[in-house]
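Quick illustration, no need to memorize.
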Amino acid sequence: MLSPRLLLAAAALVASTPAAMAQPAPDPTIHSPDDIIVEGERLTREEAKKRASAFVRTLGVAPGIYAQDSVARWKIKLCPRALGLSDEHAALVEGWFRDTARGAGAPVANGKCDTNVLLLFVDDGANFIKLFKTRYPGQFADMSGPDIRDLVELEKPVRWWYSVRRTGGGLSLIGPQTLRSIEGATIVIDVNDAEGATLRAVTDYAAFVALSGIRIRAEAQPQSILGLFDDRQGRRELTPWDKRFLTELYAMPHERKGRYQRGRLVGALVKADDAK
């Protein structure tokens, strides 16, 4: 849960840098009936496994240096709140976010709840992050120095950070050394840098990020919503890969070592390729 003080601070900062995304942009990827879309050649199983492994690796979920720790995911119910949009569009964003979370199998709060996911739509994401970091440095306590530097310095339309609770994993041979649970996520969307993407696509991107505990340096992937801003011809919604990844993330046992969980995620993505 994000503290009321932090919510008020975020709201004040967003109000000082109002977002320009008042209306969802038209989807530039709509094709005429005569268009032909080529999806690409079918991969061999070995190629599919290599691609899936690279995807999981670039996301940074349960990275090698934390091989004994679990992946980070939500155990408490998610309660999103969008700021910087009209009430009508904020409600749409929050509803879409909840639908994506439920589809993944993540716990979602119904009705009035304590906000733990902030979706902040601002005009200048880089400046917003710098102001936020200056005024509330304690909010980045769960991040490493390099991750904080990436958050501030990388030029990205969407930036994010998490509040992660770490507890002992017990003495089980198959259990993690540390169990990591996400308890808060802040997603900052720069509406100027995101220009050209629909509000729904941006929400899907933000939901994938909020649910999966990935590093901000995660590389854009053409088979994922993470490629949305790569060339403005990226995926406009969560892909089968994204959905399979999220579903497996929330279906597999949480109290397991990261290397086991990475194997489960890779296997799920390979099955997604086999199902095409």
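The helical segments are 4-16, 45-59, 87-104, 125-135, 145-153, 199-212, 240-251, 258-274.
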